[in-house]
């Protein structure tokens, strides 16, 4: 099955929130996926780094990538 969404970032919650905000400012509605909330809570792991995935629809990919790259370059990740 082919997906209509592409992962454009995986990393910290704070950066993912900033990416989400900047994308929404230009009319792109990203989807944030938090694996920590899905699976690790049941295992009771508390020191596992929280990784957030940010996805955008493939139709908005070209417009999204420069925004993400700009944010990552600014914070030097």
Overview of the molecule:
This protein is an alpha+beta fold and 77 residues long. It has a single domain (5-75), classed as Alpha-Beta Plaits. The protein is 48% helix and 22% strand. It has helices at residues 13-25, 35-43, 61-75; strands spanning 5-11, 31-34, 52-57. The protein has a 3-stranded antiparallel β-sheet. The longest helix has 15 residues, at 61-75.
Backbone shape:
globular
Number of domains: 1
Radius of gyration: 13 Å
Helix fraction by DSSP (H/I, runs of at least 4): 40-55%
Largest sheet: 3 strands, antiparallel
User: CATH fold name, please?
Assistant: Alpha-Beta Plaits
Spatial separation of the terminal alpha carbons: 32 Å
Strand segment tally: 3
For the record, the CATH class is Alpha Beta
Mean pLDDT: 85
Say what oligomer this is.
single chain
Q: Mind telling me which CATH architecture this is?
A: 2-Layer Sandwich
List low-pLDDT spans.
Answer: none
Secondary-structure-based class equals: alpha+beta
């Amino acid at each position: 099955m082919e997906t209509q969404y592409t992962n454009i970032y995986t990393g910290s919650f704070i950066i993912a929130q900033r990416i989400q905000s900047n994308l929404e400012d230009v009319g792109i509605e990203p989807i944030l996926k938090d694996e920590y909330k899905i699976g690790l809570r049941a295992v009771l792991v508390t020191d596992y780094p929280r990784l957030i995935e940010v996805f955008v629809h493939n139709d908005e990919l070209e417009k999204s990538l420069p925004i993400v790259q700009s944010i990552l370059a600014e914070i030097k990740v």
